[in-house]
Design a protein that fits this description.
The protein has 116 residues and is mostly helical. It is built from seven helices and no strands. Helix 1 packs across helix 3, helix 1 packs across helix 5 and helix 2 packs across helix 3.
Amino acid sequence: MNLTAFGSAVRKARIDAKVTLQSMSKALGVSAAYLSGMEVGRKNVSEEWVAKIQSFFINKGVELPDLQQLADISNQSIPLKGMSHQQMMMVSGFARASLTDDQVKRFVRLLEEQEA
């Protein structure tokens, strides 16, 4: 099975940290097969696991930016818990919109400007 974008990021982080799948699984208290399942998309990646994996790599001096978003993509779902009704409507509408790559890029730039 192919790695998901989440799995690719985690595998690269393991390489950067010089950690094997086996040693990482032992440190996190799960089987190597379970971690592998998350990397290839056979297992959903919960927010709890994202936090555990990020913490594991931070302790190894390796940063994993956007790991939650990569997990959301791997899971093919985005948790709406904690969002306002308006935010949920925006997420739903955006997810179902037929936008070109150029339109998406412009929208991302607009959001980045709002964060600044």
